[in-house]
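Aim 2, interim progress: modelling of the zinc ion-bound target.
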Amino acid sequence: MNVFKVEGNWYKGNLHSHTTNSDGPFTPRRRVNYYQKRGYQFLCITDHNKVTEVEGEREEKCLVLKGAEYDVMLDKGQSAHFVAINMKGDIVKTENTSKEEVIRQIKEQGAEIVFAHPCGSDLPLNAIFAVEGYIGLEVFNCNFYCREREKAYSTTYWDELLKKGQRIWGFASDDGHGPQGTPMGEDMGCCWIMVKASSLSADSILAAIKEGNFYSSYGPAILDFQIEERECYGKTSPVKKISLISDKRRKDFDKKNCLFSQFEFKLKGNEKYLRLECTDENDCIAYSNPIFMDNRK
Ligand SMILES: [Zn+2]
Ligand SMILES: [Zn+2]
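Predicted structure of the complex, ligand included:
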């Protein structure tokens, strides 16, 4: 499936955020208003190990998805975080609940799992490879603690898992906490996903995300990305670099410091999938999801 071929409307949202119900600085109500004022159309609230209800007057313009961020233990004792999107209520979990049981209970509610900040959690690739049941990774997480340690990017993990044949999506998530000692809001409203869905409802947004019908960004916009036979082409907002990443290679293209917004490239023809990154003049990046050659319609 190619998000630039399917019918629907674009909706901007963020899938990872904390409130005063765990370690965030804002109440759930204030958090939703904050995102709505910045043009976000949906927000998933993901407090640590609990599902948060948003009380008070509902802002109709911003859809609130219920979620949570669960601590789980991987096979060799590593600690990982799963972001669960579109939860109905809390699961039954103690420190000793296995990751399989956490995944089972999340899926039982009809929710989906994004593997949060693998680089920020210092996880080895094989620990992630052993996990089944999630739909994608946070390839960019702008949480202050990840950025401070230069561990915001997890694209290397994504590429390695894609090369191994996993069909997983890449998410850019705020993971806003507003830590003490830094300006409040520094890690909020920084990045987003643009989802193409039939309507702004929880079911419709979740179905589109599950299909990979979105792209992630913290700057540029991807307006079109198509693959025809042995070439690919597309449009973006003005960028200084386009990168095409396949299972075989990564190629970067620029126009010697000139900004451009259209591209057209030849392919080798032996790629199993292709994904696009574009970088704007502020060094901010947008990430398309991979288009798999056997499912590119
Ligand atoms: Zn986390
Ligand atoms: Zn978080």
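The pocket of zinc ion (ligand 1) is lined by residues 69, 81, 116-117 (CB under 6 Å). The mean pLDDT is 92.
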